[in-house]
Structures are given as C-alpha cells and as structure tokens.
Design brief:
135 residues, mainly alpha, 39% helix
Length: 135
C-alpha cells in the first residue's frame, strides 16, 4: 500500500484488479504514463476543474461540492459491487491522514492465507486466489 496509489476519488489503486494484470496493466491513477493513458479511460474525476484549479490531492480537500454527484455515483457502485466506499476512504483520510488510511487498507485487503493482496474487483487474492468475498 503506497500513498501515490490513492487516487483523487479515494480509490486505492493498490487493490484494483487492473493494477495486477499482466496485459494492459494499469499503473494507478496518479502514475499515468503515455502507454497507460492510451489503454484506459480517464477517470472523470481527474478532469474536475476544482481539483485542477486548486491543485488538490483528494476530492475531500477544500471542495464545497464534496461529495459531488460524480463521486456519489461512483461510491454507490463501489459500495454495492466492490465492498468499499470512496466517500468513506476520503473522509478517513481527511480526519486521520493518509498514513493511517494505508495501515487500515493493508489490514482490510490482506489475504488471510498467504498475506497477498485481495482485490476489490473480484475479491480474490492476486497471489493464491483465495476468495474473500464469495457471492
């Protein structure tokens, strides 16, 4: 779990399935390179004028629109499908700091069998395949 893997929306790119795939691997929202930018859609929140104009690290910083309609929609989808909340992540970061958030994430997404990372997309460990969230 690394600080630069926490996206502006509160997504932990370190638990994203795309971060671990071999083909068309995503390097994380903050680590977009030329190849990554061509192979994936840009997050609409990354294009937010408030974020850009104020050089904000996260949507929850000094934004009168937080949480905006876009973030609410994204959060709703991730709560129902992927066992996580961008809004909760951003609120935790704002209240307790990103380092404490990373500690919490490390525990939450650690595989109980091998210690690897369980992804939120699919809920399985990238190392051993353990399924944390069986539907």
């Amino acid at each position: 779990m690394e600080k630069d893997l926490i996206a502006v929306c509160g997504m932990n790119c370190g638990i994203c399935k795309a971060f671990y795939r071999e083909k068309n691997r995503c390097s994380g929202c903050r680590r977009l390179d030329e190849k990554t930018a061509k192979t994936r859609l840009h997050c609409i929140l990354r294009q937010c004028k408030i974020l850009k104009d104020n050089n904000l690290m996260y949507c929850s910083e000094r934004c009168d629109s937080f949480p905006c309609k876009r973030l609410k929609s994204l959060d709703k989808r991730y709560r129902s499908k992927y066992h996580m909340s961008m809004f909760e992540n951003l609120t935790f970061i704002k209240e307790r700091g990103v380092e404490k958030f990373l500690e919490k994430e490390k525990e939450k997404w650690r595989c109980p069998l091998c210690g690897g990372v369980v992804t939120c997309h699919g809920g399985s460990c990238v190392m051993c395949g353990f399924e944390k969230f069986k539907n």
